[in-house]
Amino acid sequence: MVKGIVTDIQRASFHDGYGIRTTVFLKGCPLSCKWCHNPECISFEKEIMEYPEKCIHCGKCSEGCFSGARVVCGRELTAREVLEEIDEDRSYYGNDGGVTVSGGEPMAQKDFANELIDICREQKISCAMETSLIYFDEKILKKLDFIMADLKIWDSGIHKAYTGVGNEVIKENFKKLNGLNIPIIARTPVIPGVEQGIDEISEFLKGLSNVVRYELLPYHPLGISKAKALKRAVEEFNIPSAEYMEELKKYAYIR
Amino acid sequence: MLTYDDRLKLMRETKIKHTFEKRTQNGYTDVDDYGTVPITDGYDVEPWYNAMDGRFFGYEGMCENFCRVIDAHPAYVDPMEMLCGRWRDMLENYRGDVNYLPDWIKNKSKLMDRIKGGDGCSRNWNEQRFPYDDLKPLQEKYNIESGIEGNSHLACDYRIGFSLGFGGLLDKIEKYRKINPDKSDFYDAEEKTLLAIVRFIDRHIEKTDELLKTEDRKEIRASLETMKQVCQNIRTGAPKTFHEACQWTAFFICASRIYTRDGAGFQMDTLLYPYYKRDIEAGILDDETAKFLIANLLLIDPHYYQISGVDENDNDMTNHLSYLILEAADSIDIACNLTVRVHKNCDRKFFEKAVYYLLKNKNGWPRFCNDDALCNGYMKNGVDKKTARERIAVGCNWMCVPGKEFPMNDTVKINIAKVMEAALFDMRNEALRSTERLFELFKEHLRIAVDTTAKGVNLHIDHQAEVTPELVMNLMMENTIEQGEDISRCASLYTVGVDGAGLAVVADSFGALQTRVEQEKVLTWDEVYEALDNNFEDERTRLILNSAPKYCHGNTVSDEWAKRLTDCWVESIVNQKMPEGRCLVPGWFSWARTIEYGSKVGATPNGRRKGEPISHGANPNPHFRADGAPTAQSNGIASVQCGYGNTAPLQIEFDPKLAADEKGVEIVGKLILGHFEQGGTLININILDKETILEANKDPDLYPDLVVRVTGFTAYFASLSPKFRQLVVDRFLEGV
User: Which of A42, A154, B280, B486 has its CA 20 to 30 A from that of B379?
Assistant: First the structure.
């Protein structure tokens, strides 16, 4: 079995997708969004996260840290090992809950993601994915019950400036994904001060028949402390005001 | 003209005002709100001590003091309400533990001198006549709450009272007095008790009359006139209408609360339904009035009422009144202990509506119990299905068959953290130390603790009638009046609940020792013992133990230990030999005693410092999982159910950050059903706004109507002591 590098398995996730879900965060992402809220999922390698405020200064770092000041981020697991944890919440999934393979960019570990999806399907557990759509693998994607995909910025130049990559391939993949007849939940993180072209994104998505809803997610700064723990440079954005979110509401929709 | 909505708003305002007045009079109270109203100026009771000062016992002592306290109670009639009657004071205040008395009693120095009188022995138990000095050392060693001096933890069968009324009960006493001429002490006391209740009603009739003299508002006059008529009808007559049944209940509750704080309600929807149906058909009641009356009854007392559930033929019992009761509770939205009985064929629409109110109001109600698991478990004690189906959740964590059972539930507990402490002490100097050896010693100490507990329980049952006969509750129990005996002597079922407390502390301790000492060898046994001795002077050692995988994380060694401890607990309890058809029934519960129990336990190998609170009920320790997954907590607690019809409640507080009309009802509904599907028994749940609870903890007075479910009971957050508020905040699941 392929081993994947998993950042975290979050049980009882209520806010992304349908029902009660277990979200499996795979480590590694080819994008580097300046507002990333999961910066620990950018590198494909295991990392140490440091929280000096928790340090008790025992001077025994080499013998193991138990205070939470130094935490290893990333576990190598097989799909079956992940399933053991997924299985724990089976009583709560019902008809619409299940597993979300997320990241990072889960398709960056596509063999592992594929095994994980297969193993969930074998167990009759509903499976979804959160992806940037920077990659497209029809064989894998069509096994999913629904897909949550981001279109963060309409203009490719600005997209590249803020995420490190242009968005032509993402737009193209959105169209290809629409052809698979799988429900798509499209999303845009709302970042004040960035010209995102949310009106154009919304218009584009309306042309895709399988986009069942378009969600606007307000930027939140939860990634900053994690980025600091990883000693990554961070850029802090303003949290969008309730009024601004209300103003943008007209672009979001549920079909 | 005042509408029902206007009146409810005013009633709610009065309730909030009372909450603050009670806090001024009583000090902080870490108990149920109980629906009491403040003490009035000039309120005074001269207790009659028939033993030495501070003590009154037996039929005569209890009866005389009950009469004195209830006779001192002024009538409570609020013209905004349609029902009258409230309680303010109870017998226990005159002979109870002086540490738990309300401030308004503590401020009466002469009375306090009398209450404190005597020789320092328990005031709720007659130790001169029924000593148990031989049990005390072991009770202290294992921090056993013995049940001795407990009372009222049983449930009345309201059908008895509804069918007879207070007059019918007096007739019943007369009838059986002739059959049992040697039981005159019993019958005299019961008769006097009943007459005192009738006097209490009469004072309400007088008060209503007085208010009518000055009341000009037409609709309120009409309401007061109806109230007066209802009271006149039921002072001796059996209730015949929905309104009368509600008012009858209100008066009975006041009496039984004053007597021994009886908290057990009844199956509200099915019991009141015949009255509701008859009145609706007769055109003398409409749904709006029925709802107002129920809201009024819930205001009078947040009793443990049940709604919905399954009958002996597996039929769902939800009726139209079940829905109205939820709507009524919503209309007043105060401290409330409604329990929704869930089962596999439950009315899904009703269940969703119940969950909706939990999310809409975020006031800790309703709570949910699992009929299937509880009934099947209880039948394992040799009880038939019909009886087991009647067993309802009438206390914080506890169940009872109304009218039949004498369960002592929630009055008998063993602090298993103390049991582990004894085992650790024994193993200290042994050559081969291991978690397996520790577990063997734990089992041996537990056996002794359970045996000691059983002796206390038996002493209590044998003599409760001579100490604290249940004079009020006896009126609605089977066999009592018929035989002239207190219920403690003539119950059909003696399934006595024994709860273990401190499960997570012990499971995590075993887990930490296995992980850090045996598997990883990060610490030695000597180092652990030294750290426990010096209360973790070395923080690193504490963190090594405390960071070990915890119970409720899922698939950890501590989860496995929790299951092993449960198996061992159940085995010890159910195998305990008991005389005369009595048996012990295992559960996990600490009630609100986590701080008190923790203060008696030294440092523990899970990294808990000496004196810190023990874990709550069957709950995990805080920070059991980084994502705070409620599903993980739910699974863990489902895996430690004791399986004999008593509960190991899932006490859960979290903020799903979802509105009722978004996914909230669906998500919380799935959590509840998922827990029950795995065998969970009772869910005491708080859905809270995290920001609100944190702000309220800083300044509770800014949130005067915020109610939290502390354990099984609800309380106004502003009434709780800072320590208790912090406990609720600490239980809040992080990371959701």
Answer: B486
